[in-house]
């Protein structure tokens, strides 16, 4: 009887875990991104938020006025589209020190320091706009 209860508990836990995590593929914001390297792993620049920005979905990050942002890529817009950059922000709380990555509108920030002037253009993928 105990073995049966243990298996039922395991199935319930696994089942609940599967329903708690899901991911969504979102629409691509651009087909090309500008990065410091081919993997977009190096910071292009630092920027300072000019005003607060509230993220509209999970692809974006919230910004607080005065907050510093590490910029990793800049989307190359299709004509007429908005210009978004990808970066990370760090919170004041210890639990936020890992940083949060996402997109934000470039007109909400002022680029304060450029680390890498030589950049590369690479195609975006569906994973660039993946929401978890």
TrEMBL record:
Signal peptide: 1-23
Entry keyword Protein biosynthesis: no
Keyword Ligase in annotation: no
Record Pfam families: SH3_2 (PF07653)
Domain spans labelled SH3: 42-114
Annotated InterPro entries: OTOR, SH3-like_dom_sf, SH3_domain
PROSITE patterns per record: PROKAR_LIPOPROTEIN, SH3
Protein name: SH3 domain-containing protein
Domain of life: Eukaryota
Stored SUPFAM superfamilies: SH3-domain
Any one biological process term the GO annotation gives: cartilage condensation
Swiss-Prot/TrEMBL keywords: SH3 domain, Signal
